[in-house]
Amino acid sequence: MSVSSHTSLNDGNRIPVIGFGTYAPETYPKSKAEEATELAIKVGYRHIDGAYMYSNEAEVGRAIHKKISDGTIRREDLFLTGKLWCTFHRPNLVQKGLQRSLEALNMKYLDLFLIHVPVEFQVISGKQISWDGALLNSSLPFRNIFQAMEQCKDAGLVKSIGVSNFNRRQLELILKKRGLKYKPVCNQVECHVYLNQEKLLKFCNENDIVLVAYSVLGSSRDVTFGVAVGCPVLLEDPVLNGIAQRIGRTPAQVALRYLLQRGIVVLAKSYTEHRIKENLQVFDFQLGEEDMKSLYALNKNMRYGKMPM
Ligand code: NDP
User: Dihedral through CA 60, CA 224, CA 228, CA 21, nearest 10?
Assistant: First the structure.
Protein backbone atom coordinates (compact mmCIF):
# COMPACT_ATOMS: atom_id res chain seq x y z
CA MET A 1 0.00 0.00 0.00
CA SER A 2 1.28 3.47 -0.87
CA VAL A 3 -0.04 7.02 -0.96
CA SER A 4 -1.15 6.43 -4.55
CA SER A 5 -2.96 3.14 -3.77
CA HIS A 6 -6.54 2.79 -4.93
CA THR A 7 -9.42 0.43 -4.15
CA SER A 8 -11.52 -0.89 -7.03
CA LEU A 9 -15.17 0.11 -7.11
CA ASN A 10 -17.94 -2.19 -8.36
CA ASP A 11 -18.51 0.01 -11.44
CA GLY A 12 -14.93 -0.31 -12.69
CA ASN A 13 -13.70 3.01 -11.28
CA ARG A 14 -11.10 3.34 -8.50
CA ILE A 15 -10.96 5.34 -5.28
CA PRO A 16 -7.73 6.47 -3.56
CA VAL A 17 -7.44 4.75 -0.18
CA ILE A 18 -6.93 7.99 1.73
CA GLY A 19 -8.96 11.14 1.30
CA PHE A 20 -8.84 14.68 2.63
CA GLY A 21 -11.93 15.73 4.62
CA THR A 22 -13.08 19.29 4.05
CA TYR A 23 -15.81 19.68 6.68
CA ALA A 24 -15.20 22.05 9.58
CA PRO A 25 -17.60 23.42 12.20
CA GLU A 26 -19.27 26.78 11.54
CA THR A 27 -16.78 28.56 13.81
CA TYR A 28 -14.01 28.09 11.20
CA PRO A 29 -13.77 30.76 8.50
CA LYS A 30 -14.55 29.23 5.10
CA SER A 31 -11.26 30.57 3.74
CA LYS A 32 -9.53 27.90 5.85
CA ALA A 33 -11.08 25.22 3.65
CA GLU A 34 -9.45 26.79 0.62
CA GLU A 35 -6.01 27.10 2.23
CA ALA A 36 -6.14 23.57 3.64
CA THR A 37 -7.37 21.94 0.43
CA GLU A 38 -4.62 23.65 -1.55
CA LEU A 39 -2.04 22.45 0.92
CA ALA A 40 -3.49 18.94 0.95
CA ILE A 41 -3.15 18.67 -2.82
CA LYS A 42 0.35 20.13 -2.65
CA VAL A 43 1.51 17.48 -0.17
CA GLY A 44 -0.03 14.60 -2.11
CA TYR A 45 -3.72 14.00 -1.32
CA ARG A 46 -5.56 13.04 -4.51
CA HIS A 47 -8.96 12.34 -2.99
CA ILE A 48 -11.01 15.26 -1.69
CA ASP A 49 -14.21 14.68 0.24
CA GLY A 50 -16.75 17.49 0.08
CA ALA A 51 -20.47 18.10 0.31
CA TYR A 52 -23.08 20.74 -0.44
CA MET A 53 -23.96 20.75 3.27
CA TYR A 54 -20.41 21.88 4.24
CA SER A 55 -21.09 25.27 2.59
CA ASN A 56 -17.51 25.51 1.40
CA GLU A 57 -17.62 24.01 -2.09
CA ALA A 58 -16.70 27.35 -3.71
CA GLU A 59 -13.54 27.53 -1.56
CA VAL A 60 -12.66 23.87 -2.16
CA GLY A 61 -13.22 24.32 -5.89
CA ARG A 62 -10.98 27.40 -5.98
CA ALA A 63 -8.20 25.49 -4.24
CA ILE A 64 -8.45 22.64 -6.76
CA HIS A 65 -8.40 25.06 -9.69
CA LYS A 66 -5.31 26.78 -8.29
CA LYS A 67 -3.50 23.45 -8.16
CA ILE A 68 -4.63 22.62 -11.69
CA SER A 69 -3.47 26.06 -12.93
CA ASP A 70 -0.05 25.79 -11.31
CA GLY A 71 0.50 22.38 -12.90
CA THR A 72 0.48 20.31 -9.68
CA ILE A 73 -2.44 18.16 -10.89
CA ARG A 74 -4.76 17.62 -13.81
CA ARG A 75 -8.46 17.29 -13.08
CA GLU A 76 -8.29 13.61 -13.97
CA ASP A 77 -5.63 13.05 -11.28
CA LEU A 78 -8.09 14.02 -8.58
CA PHE A 79 -10.93 12.02 -7.04
CA LEU A 80 -13.60 14.48 -5.94
CA THR A 81 -16.61 13.47 -3.88
CA GLY A 82 -19.83 15.45 -3.41
CA LYS A 83 -23.01 14.65 -1.52
CA LEU A 84 -26.68 15.27 -2.12
CA TRP A 85 -28.19 17.00 0.90
CA CYS A 86 -31.65 15.92 2.00
CA THR A 87 -33.33 19.17 0.95
CA PHE A 88 -32.94 17.72 -2.58
CA HIS A 89 -34.60 14.41 -1.75
CA ARG A 90 -37.08 14.53 -4.58
CA PRO A 91 -36.29 12.79 -7.86
CA ASN A 92 -36.72 16.02 -9.83
CA LEU A 93 -34.37 17.89 -7.47
CA VAL A 94 -31.46 15.45 -7.52
CA GLN A 95 -29.79 16.80 -10.65
CA LYS A 96 -30.49 20.37 -9.50
CA GLY A 97 -28.73 19.62 -6.21
CA LEU A 98 -25.79 18.18 -8.10
CA GLN A 99 -25.68 21.19 -10.44
CA ARG A 100 -25.52 23.53 -7.43
CA SER A 101 -22.42 21.66 -6.24
CA LEU A 102 -20.85 21.55 -9.69
CA GLU A 103 -21.42 25.28 -10.12
CA ALA A 104 -19.99 26.11 -6.70
CA LEU A 105 -16.97 23.90 -7.35
CA ASN A 106 -16.73 25.11 -10.96
CA MET A 107 -16.41 21.51 -12.12
CA LYS A 108 -17.90 19.62 -15.04
CA TYR A 109 -18.20 16.37 -13.12
CA LEU A 110 -17.72 14.67 -9.76
CA ASP A 111 -15.91 11.38 -9.33
CA LEU A 112 -18.34 10.25 -6.66
CA PHE A 113 -21.80 11.48 -5.72
CA LEU A 114 -23.39 10.19 -2.52
CA ILE A 115 -26.78 10.38 -0.88
CA HIS A 116 -25.52 12.17 2.24
CA VAL A 117 -28.04 10.88 4.78
CA PRO A 118 -30.84 8.29 4.59
CA VAL A 119 -33.49 10.80 5.49
CA GLU A 120 -36.67 11.44 3.62
CA PHE A 121 -38.36 14.73 4.33
CA GLN A 122 -41.69 13.32 3.36
CA VAL A 123 -44.28 14.61 5.74
CA ILE A 124 -46.82 12.02 6.79
CA SER A 125 -49.43 12.99 9.37
CA GLY A 126 -47.36 16.07 10.18
CA LYS A 127 -44.28 14.02 11.11
CA GLN A 128 -40.91 13.85 9.41
CA ILE A 129 -40.03 10.23 8.74
CA SER A 130 -36.76 8.50 8.09
CA TRP A 131 -36.02 5.90 5.46
CA ASP A 132 -37.03 2.91 7.42
CA GLY A 133 -38.31 -0.29 5.86
CA ALA A 134 -41.57 -0.43 7.73
CA LEU A 135 -42.60 2.99 6.56
CA LEU A 136 -41.71 2.53 2.94
CA ASN A 137 -43.94 1.64 0.09
CA SER A 138 -43.44 2.01 -3.61
CA SER A 139 -45.36 5.26 -3.77
CA LEU A 140 -42.78 7.09 -1.70
CA PRO A 141 -40.27 9.03 -3.79
CA PHE A 142 -37.14 7.65 -2.10
CA ARG A 143 -36.94 4.70 -4.48
CA ASN A 144 -36.60 7.13 -7.32
CA ILE A 145 -33.87 9.21 -5.72
CA PHE A 146 -31.27 6.57 -6.37
CA GLN A 147 -32.67 6.22 -9.89
CA ALA A 148 -32.17 9.98 -10.34
CA MET A 149 -28.57 9.50 -9.14
CA GLU A 150 -28.18 6.78 -11.79
CA GLN A 151 -29.36 9.29 -14.38
CA CYS A 152 -26.67 11.74 -13.21
CA LYS A 153 -24.09 9.02 -13.91
CA ASP A 154 -25.60 8.28 -17.32
CA ALA A 155 -25.49 12.00 -18.12
CA GLY A 156 -21.73 12.00 -17.41
CA LEU A 157 -22.09 14.43 -14.51
CA VAL A 158 -20.69 11.92 -12.00
CA LYS A 159 -18.46 8.91 -12.50
CA SER A 160 -19.73 6.82 -9.58
CA ILE A 161 -22.67 6.89 -7.21
CA GLY A 162 -23.00 5.72 -3.65
CA VAL A 163 -24.53 6.38 -0.26
CA SER A 164 -23.53 7.64 3.16
CA ASN A 165 -24.78 6.91 6.67
CA PHE A 166 -26.84 3.92 5.49
CA ASN A 167 -27.32 0.93 7.75
CA ARG A 168 -27.62 -2.59 6.40
CA ARG A 169 -31.39 -2.47 6.03
CA GLN A 170 -31.28 0.82 4.17
CA LEU A 171 -28.55 -0.55 1.85
CA GLU A 172 -30.73 -3.58 1.19
CA LEU A 173 -33.61 -1.32 0.19
CA ILE A 174 -31.40 0.11 -2.54
CA LEU A 175 -29.85 -3.22 -3.53
CA LYS A 176 -33.28 -4.84 -3.87
CA LYS A 177 -34.76 -1.93 -5.80
CA ARG A 178 -36.56 -3.15 -8.89
CA GLY A 179 -34.66 -2.14 -12.03
CA LEU A 180 -31.52 -1.11 -10.14
CA LYS A 181 -29.03 -0.12 -12.83
CA TYR A 182 -25.93 0.60 -10.73
CA LYS A 183 -25.16 -0.68 -7.26
CA PRO A 184 -23.91 1.95 -4.80
CA VAL A 185 -20.11 1.77 -5.02
CA CYS A 186 -19.58 2.75 -1.40
CA ASN A 187 -21.16 3.54 1.93
CA GLN A 188 -19.43 6.41 3.74
CA VAL A 189 -19.99 6.01 7.47
CA GLU A 190 -18.51 6.89 10.83
CA CYS A 191 -15.83 4.33 11.63
CA HIS A 192 -12.86 4.35 14.03
CA VAL A 193 -11.32 2.43 16.92
CA TYR A 194 -14.40 3.04 19.09
CA LEU A 195 -16.83 2.09 16.27
CA ASN A 196 -15.29 -0.70 14.22
CA GLN A 197 -18.39 -1.33 12.05
CA GLU A 198 -17.60 -5.05 11.95
CA LYS A 199 -21.06 -6.19 10.80
CA LEU A 200 -21.60 -3.39 8.29
CA LEU A 201 -18.11 -3.95 6.84
CA LYS A 202 -18.85 -7.65 6.37
CA PHE A 203 -22.12 -6.86 4.63
CA CYS A 204 -20.43 -4.26 2.42
CA ASN A 205 -17.62 -6.67 1.52
CA GLU A 206 -20.14 -9.40 0.63
CA ASN A 207 -21.92 -6.96 -1.67
CA ASP A 208 -18.83 -5.41 -3.27
CA ILE A 209 -19.49 -2.06 -1.64
CA VAL A 210 -16.47 -0.14 -0.34
CA LEU A 211 -16.71 1.16 3.21
CA VAL A 212 -15.36 4.71 3.47
CA ALA A 213 -14.67 5.85 7.03
CA TYR A 214 -15.18 9.31 8.46
CA SER A 215 -14.35 10.72 11.91
CA VAL A 216 -11.44 8.26 12.01
CA LEU A 217 -9.56 10.71 14.27
CA GLY A 218 -12.49 11.16 16.60
CA SER A 219 -14.13 14.04 14.70
CA SER A 220 -13.73 17.74 15.37
CA ARG A 221 -16.03 17.33 18.39
CA ASP A 222 -18.50 19.73 16.86
CA VAL A 223 -21.49 20.26 19.14
CA THR A 224 -23.77 21.10 16.20
CA PHE A 225 -22.89 17.61 14.92
CA GLY A 226 -24.10 16.24 18.24
CA VAL A 227 -20.77 15.43 19.86
CA ALA A 228 -21.25 15.38 23.60
CA VAL A 229 -18.71 17.40 25.55
CA GLY A 230 -18.01 14.51 27.93
CA CYS A 231 -17.40 11.77 25.34
CA PRO A 232 -13.89 10.24 25.27
CA VAL A 233 -11.23 11.90 23.11
CA LEU A 234 -10.21 9.20 20.66
CA LEU A 235 -6.66 10.40 20.07
CA GLU A 236 -6.04 10.37 23.85
CA ASP A 237 -6.91 6.69 24.17
CA PRO A 238 -4.18 5.02 26.30
CA VAL A 239 -3.98 1.83 24.20
CA LEU A 240 -3.76 3.80 20.96
CA ASN A 241 -1.13 6.07 22.51
CA GLY A 242 0.83 3.10 23.90
CA ILE A 243 1.08 1.51 20.45
CA ALA A 244 1.94 4.82 18.80
CA GLN A 245 4.69 5.52 21.31
CA ARG A 246 6.18 2.03 21.00
CA ILE A 247 6.40 2.13 17.19
CA GLY A 248 7.40 5.79 16.97
CA ARG A 249 4.22 7.02 15.29
CA THR A 250 1.45 9.42 16.30
CA PRO A 251 -1.96 8.24 17.58
CA ALA A 252 -3.58 9.72 14.45
CA GLN A 253 -1.30 7.71 12.17
CA VAL A 254 -2.06 4.50 14.07
CA ALA A 255 -5.82 5.24 14.00
CA LEU A 256 -5.71 5.71 10.21
CA ARG A 257 -3.42 2.76 9.56
CA TYR A 258 -5.65 0.44 11.62
CA LEU A 259 -8.58 1.03 9.26
CA LEU A 260 -6.45 0.92 6.10
CA GLN A 261 -5.22 -2.54 7.12
CA ARG A 262 -8.86 -3.66 7.47
CA GLY A 263 -9.46 -2.74 3.81
CA ILE A 264 -11.33 0.46 4.64
CA VAL A 265 -10.90 3.73 2.71
CA VAL A 266 -10.14 6.51 5.21
CA LEU A 267 -10.87 10.24 5.34
CA ALA A 268 -8.87 12.61 7.51
CA LYS A 269 -9.64 16.27 8.08
CA SER A 270 -7.10 18.79 9.25
CA TYR A 271 -6.73 22.48 8.56
CA THR A 272 -3.28 22.50 10.23
CA GLU A 273 -0.25 22.18 8.00
CA HIS A 274 1.84 19.73 10.00
CA ARG A 275 -1.16 17.50 10.70
CA ILE A 276 -2.25 17.53 7.03
CA LYS A 277 1.22 16.14 6.26
CA GLU A 278 1.32 13.79 9.26
CA ASN A 279 -1.95 12.09 8.30
CA LEU A 280 -0.52 11.13 4.91
CA GLN A 281 2.53 9.43 6.46
CA VAL A 282 0.76 6.13 7.01
CA PHE A 283 2.22 4.01 4.24
CA ASP A 284 5.74 3.35 5.53
CA PHE A 285 4.84 1.17 8.49
CA GLN A 286 2.59 -1.75 9.31
CA LEU A 287 0.71 -2.72 12.47
CA GLY A 288 1.37 -6.23 13.71
CA GLU A 289 -1.34 -8.77 14.45
CA GLU A 290 -1.24 -8.16 18.22
CA ASP A 291 -1.59 -4.40 17.81
CA MET A 292 -4.47 -4.89 15.38
CA LYS A 293 -6.17 -7.13 17.97
CA SER A 294 -5.65 -4.57 20.77
CA LEU A 295 -7.11 -1.80 18.62
CA TYR A 296 -10.02 -4.00 17.60
CA ALA A 297 -10.77 -4.62 21.28
CA LEU A 298 -11.27 -0.86 21.82
CA ASN A 299 -14.62 -1.02 20.03
CA LYS A 300 -17.49 0.41 22.09
CA ASN A 301 -19.97 0.93 19.24
CA MET A 302 -19.69 4.60 20.14
CA ARG A 303 -20.66 7.32 17.70
CA TYR A 304 -19.41 10.90 17.79
CA GLY A 305 -21.86 12.14 15.17
CA LYS A 306 -25.40 12.04 16.51
CA MET A 307 -26.55 14.39 13.72
CA PRO A 308 -29.26 16.14 15.72
CA MET A 309 -30.21 18.15 12.65
P1 NDP B 1 -11.70 13.67 11.80
O2 NDP B 1 -11.97 12.46 12.59
O3 NDP B 1 -10.93 13.56 10.52
O4 NDP B 1 -11.00 14.68 12.82
C5 NDP B 1 -10.78 16.02 12.56
C6 NDP B 1 -10.23 16.65 13.82
O7 NDP B 1 -9.02 16.04 14.19
C8 NDP B 1 -9.96 18.12 13.66
O9 NDP B 1 -10.31 18.76 14.86
C10 NDP B 1 -8.46 18.18 13.44
O11 NDP B 1 -7.93 19.39 13.91
C12 NDP B 1 -7.98 17.01 14.26
N13 NDP B 1 -6.79 16.37 13.71
C14 NDP B 1 -6.55 16.07 12.42
N15 NDP B 1 -5.36 15.45 12.28
C16 NDP B 1 -4.84 15.35 13.52
C17 NDP B 1 -3.64 14.81 14.01
N18 NDP B 1 -2.76 14.25 13.21
N19 NDP B 1 -3.42 14.89 15.35
C20 NDP B 1 -4.31 15.47 16.19
N21 NDP B 1 -5.48 15.99 15.76
C22 NDP B 1 -5.74 15.93 14.43
O23 NDP B 1 -13.07 14.45 11.58
P24 NDP B 1 -14.30 14.60 10.66
O25 NDP B 1 -15.48 14.20 11.47
O26 NDP B 1 -14.24 15.97 10.10
O27 NDP B 1 -14.18 13.54 9.48
C28 NDP B 1 -13.33 13.72 8.35
C29 NDP B 1 -14.11 14.04 7.09
O30 NDP B 1 -15.09 13.05 6.82
C31 NDP B 1 -14.92 15.35 7.12
O32 NDP B 1 -14.12 16.50 6.99
C33 NDP B 1 -15.87 15.11 5.98
O34 NDP B 1 -15.22 15.32 4.74
C35 NDP B 1 -16.21 13.63 6.17
N36 NDP B 1 -17.41 13.45 7.00
C37 NDP B 1 -18.53 12.91 6.40
C38 NDP B 1 -19.72 12.76 7.10
C39 NDP B 1 -20.92 12.19 6.43
O40 NDP B 1 -22.01 12.31 6.98
N41 NDP B 1 -20.76 11.56 5.28
C42 NDP B 1 -19.82 13.15 8.52
C43 NDP B 1 -18.58 13.63 9.08
C44 NDP B 1 -17.45 13.76 8.33
P45 NDP B 1 -7.20 20.48 12.96
O46 NDP B 1 -8.07 20.72 11.78
O47 NDP B 1 -7.09 21.66 13.86
O48 NDP B 1 -5.87 19.89 12.60
Answer: -10
